[in-house]
């Protein structure tokens, strides 16, 4: 990546001291074909002194530039920088007329044509540096301005944006001016949207999707809008500042890279949240959490915005914490922290044990430019940061926490703030030493480990000492569980003690419990271990613990022990076989089965042990399917059916399901299940391309196109592998989603010999495609196209040589660094 194509923190500070940006007038015309659109930008700003500076844009063609009515030479554009030389102190107006390229990778102005009905949709994703793909800007978060947009679109289209839009006729749309916002938060979505509109508290609310998804959005519109209203009302109970924008639209858009984006007044979501097929209640809960997460950003991120990208964690950690907590408080989903514990928190734990780990709040010197900032969107900024805030609320108390938050909003609304401002505002609301807490929790790396030691006294009572490996203080609950004498295998809670770690004195706990669990309730962020007797209880009675969040803490402890080489990998699968048949929490079943299959069976066990693991998981899923034959738990049944398909070692059963269009006793096969079965049958060599094409005729949707790409790449045929490889790494025509689908199908543990030559080819080809196509494809190439099942010292050596010699762009380098660390861990687990 060229050093000039990224903005450094020092450059941003210099420009922020020089400029006060007032207003952007932006006119977009999207009626000129499927490759480019017109972008006319007028920026009004003040220079505080005589100086030189620059404005950023990445045009297909720069037609003209004028500064205060005087033409500037478009040829002076150097990559993405247009120099503004000899600025004088005072008011200025910059006018930039350009032709810009549409994106197929979810960056900038993404263009998508629906294969179902031929309709076209556009939306912007302008995070970090991608505003420059749409209009000229002084592109940094602390140069906030008012944005006033107009859009010319084809007849029959609707234009959505940050503010209320008005159709002026003949395809011309005007957007209400925004309050002061950052450049990366500007948003436009245009197309023949299907919309459901309402009002709440005097504000227009709307949800939007492609027309071909209209029946599916309509089916869930009441639930989505009810959750939106409930979260909106709950935030107004928590926050003193009212919602700061003039409307609240939520658009579910195609081929979106992230989960969602917090554009003020127009949140964009990946359209997978519009369910075409059956889903579990846990998936609905996750959608609710994302709605709440993005709404929290309206205050923390949009109203008050980071000054520089080193504080991006604060946006995401706050929204992550608020999303889970607010859904728990305001909706029917009252057990969200179990899902967080079993799905999100391990993401943070894993990231925090890799060489690429960083503090939750990195040192500003560690984020010197925008390229380095992009690398911090990981489990640390989201899951660990949210865990840290949850621990802070436990330590501080919610009342003082919210008082500090509201002080922060009041002091910095429609402006920018830093971590220091945030900590100062929290400190103003409490007598506790928040600055010391921040140093311990936010400026350090790694995962602490807590291990209990029980000591018997002469009278038969016991004391607890917690061995603490790490540096952070923790306020935790210690659960004491006894065997239920009336029901074998069931545990009852005797007491839940509060403990501060490190502590000065041993804690009296009375008689020895059957199970002592540190961090019961999962209020802190740490790995926990068991004393020997507690571990024996876990192996026999884990399913007998009364609360799902407690069971999540135990399952995470087993997961950590496997990853650390302290528990044999097969022991985890045996624990799943013993306890999941009795589990009712969907998040736990899904999380445990996913880790057991994708990590333990596919990576941590030697190839010769994998068939036994798959057979065990197949039997487990079959038991869950039988257990739910009475229809009492459709979500659990659906989860079991999905995983049965995924681990099937023989095609007969799932092929019969496909032919009959149903699982005996239900569910009937919807598109998701049909493509899932075809994907597994393709891996097993039980179908050919003709079957895939026939299914695509039945489901020509975007999701169907992705399913077909995944299946074709999974076929155990040399020619199919060659075509898939060329599609990913040579042709450059795949959209981001089709690239991911092809990559997901390509590598299969069953096909190690067939794809061996591609393991060696991967490194150079991934480096090349990432350099050509940019960060989004680099992320996909490193995340999904990596040969995860080639667990060998040779693969590790090839990867290390690539990092050392091939100079991958930063986005790919970070992904490869993490993947190689996971590969090294898998090798260690295999030999433990």
Shape: globular
CATH topology of the domain at 19-278: Immunoglobulin-like
How large, in whole angstroms, is the Cα Rg?
27 Å
Biggest sheet features: 8 strands, mixed
Mean pLDDT: 97
Distance between the termini: 40 Å
Pfam families: ERAP1_C, Peptidase_M1, Peptidase_M1_N
Domain Aminopeptidase N-like N-terminal: 89-185
Protein name: Aminopeptidase N
Enzyme class: hydrolase
Please give a structural write-up:
Belongs to the peptidase M1 family. One of its GO terms (biological process) is peptide catabolic process. This protein is of the alpha+beta class and 832 residues long. Among the domains are: 19-278, Immunoglobulin-like (Sandwich); 305-443, Neutral Protease, domain 2 (Orthogonal Bundle), CATH 1.10.390; 729-831. Helix content is 44%, strand content 21%. It has 26 helices and 28 strands. An eight-stranded mixed sheet has the order 5-4-7-2-1-10-13-12. β1 (19-29) and β2 form a beta hairpin. α18 packs parallel to α20 (702-714) and α20 (702-714) packs parallel to α22. The mean pLDDT is 97.
């Amino acid at each position: 990546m060229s050093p000039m194509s990224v903005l450094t923190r020092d450059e941003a500070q210099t420009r922020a001291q020089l400029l006060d940006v007032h207003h952007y007038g932006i006119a977009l015309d999207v009626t000129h074909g499927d490759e480019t659109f017109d972008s006319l930008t007028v920026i009004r700003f003040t220079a505080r002194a005589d100086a030189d500076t620059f404005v950023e844009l990445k045009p297909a063609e720069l037609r003209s530039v004028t500064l205060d009515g005087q033409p500037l030479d478009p040829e002076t554009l150097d990559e993405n920088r247009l120099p503004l030389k000899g600025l004088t102190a005072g008011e200025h107006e910059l006018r930039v007329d350009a032709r810009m390229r549409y994106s197929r990778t979810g960056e900038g102005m993404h263009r998508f044509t629906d294969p179902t009905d031929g309709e076209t949709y556009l939306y912007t994703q302008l995070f970090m540096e991608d505003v420059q793909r749409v209009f000229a800007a002084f592109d940094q978060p602390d140069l906030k301005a008012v944005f006033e947009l107009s859009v010319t679109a084809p007849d029959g289209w609707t234009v959505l944006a940050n503010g209320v839009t008005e159709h002026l006729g003949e395809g011309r749309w005007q957007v209400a001016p925004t309050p002061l916002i950052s450049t990366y938060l500007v948003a436009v979505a245009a197309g023949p949207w299907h919309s459901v509109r309402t009002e709440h508290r005097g504000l227009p609310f709307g949800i939007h999707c492609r027309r071909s998804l209209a029946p599916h959005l309509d089916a869930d519109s009441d639930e989505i809008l009810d959750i939106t209203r409930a979260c909106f009302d709950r935030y107004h109970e928590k926050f003193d500042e009212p919602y700061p924008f003039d409307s609240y639209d939520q658009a579910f858009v195609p081929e979106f890279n992230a989960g969602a984006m917090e554009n003020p007044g127009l949140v964009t979501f990946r359209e997978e949240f519009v369910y075409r097929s059956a889903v579990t209640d846990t998936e609905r809960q996750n959608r609710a959490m994302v709605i709440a997460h993005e709404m929290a950003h309206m205050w923390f991120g949009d109203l008050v915005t980071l000054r520089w990208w080193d504080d991006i964690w604060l946006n995401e950690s706050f929204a992550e914490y608020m999303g889970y907590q607010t859904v728990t408080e305001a909706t029917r989903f009252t057990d969200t922290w179990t899902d967080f514990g079993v799905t999100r928190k391990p993401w943070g734990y894993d990231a925090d044990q890799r060489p690429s780990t960083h503090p939750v709040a990195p040192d500003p010197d560690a984020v010197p430019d925008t390229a380095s900032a992009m690398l911090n969107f990981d489990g640390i900024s989201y899951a660990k940061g949210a865990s840290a805030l949850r621990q802070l609320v436990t330590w501080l108390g919610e009342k003082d926490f919210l008082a500090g938050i509201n002080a922060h909003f009041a002091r910095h609304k429609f402006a920018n703030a830093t971590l220091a401002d945030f900590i100062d505002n929290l400190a103003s609301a409490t007598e506790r030493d928040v600055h010391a807490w921040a140093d311990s929790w936010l400026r350090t790396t790694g995962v602490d480990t807590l291990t209990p030691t029980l000591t018997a006294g002469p009278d038969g009572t016991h004391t607890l000492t917690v061995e603490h490996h790490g540096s952070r203080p923790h306020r935790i609950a210690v659960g004491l569980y006894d065997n239920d004498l009336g029901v074998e295998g069931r545990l009852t809670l005797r007491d839940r003690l509060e403990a501060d770690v490190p502590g000065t004195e041993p804690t009296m706990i009375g008689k020895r419990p059957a199970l002592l669990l540190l961090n019961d309730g999962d209020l802190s962020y740490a790995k926990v271990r068991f004393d020997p007797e507690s571990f024996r209880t876990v192996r026999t009675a884990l399913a007998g613990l009364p609360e799902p969040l407690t069971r999540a803490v135990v399952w995470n402890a087993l997961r950590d022990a496997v990853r650390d080489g302290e528990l044999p990998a097969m022991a985890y699968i045996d624990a799943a076989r013993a306890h999941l048949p009795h589990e009712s929490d969907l998040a736990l079943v899904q999380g445990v089965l996913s880790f057991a299959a994708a990590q333990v069976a596919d990576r941590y066990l030697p190839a010769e042990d994998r068939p036994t693991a798959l057979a065990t998981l197949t039997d487990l899923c079959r038991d869950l399917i039988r257990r739910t034959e009475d229809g009492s738990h459709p979500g659990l049944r659906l989860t079991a059916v999905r995983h049965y398909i995924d681990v099937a070692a023989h095609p007969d059963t799932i092929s019969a399901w496909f032919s009959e269009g149903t699982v005996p006793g239900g569910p009937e096969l919807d598109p998701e299940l049909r493509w899932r079965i075809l994907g597994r049958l393709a891996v097993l060599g039980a179908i050919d391309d003709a079957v895939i094409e026939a299914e695509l005729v039945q489901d020509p949707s975007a999701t169907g196109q992705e399913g077909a790409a995944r299946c074709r790449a999974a076929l155990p045929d040399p020619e199919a592998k060659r075509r898939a490889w060329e599609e990913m790494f040579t042709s450059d025509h795949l959209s981001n989603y089709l690239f991911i689908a092809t990559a997901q199908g390509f590598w299969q543990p069953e096909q190690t010999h067939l794809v061996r030559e591609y393991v060696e080819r991967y490194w150079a080809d991934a480096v090349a495609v990432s350099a050509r196509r940019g960060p989004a494809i680099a992320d996909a190439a490193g995340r999904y196209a990596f040969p995860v099942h080639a667990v060998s010292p040779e693969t590790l050596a090839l990867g290390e040589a690539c990092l050392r010699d091939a100079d991958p762009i930063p986005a790919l380098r970070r992904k490869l660094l993490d993947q190689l660390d996971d590969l090294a861990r898998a090798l260690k687990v295999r030999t433990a």
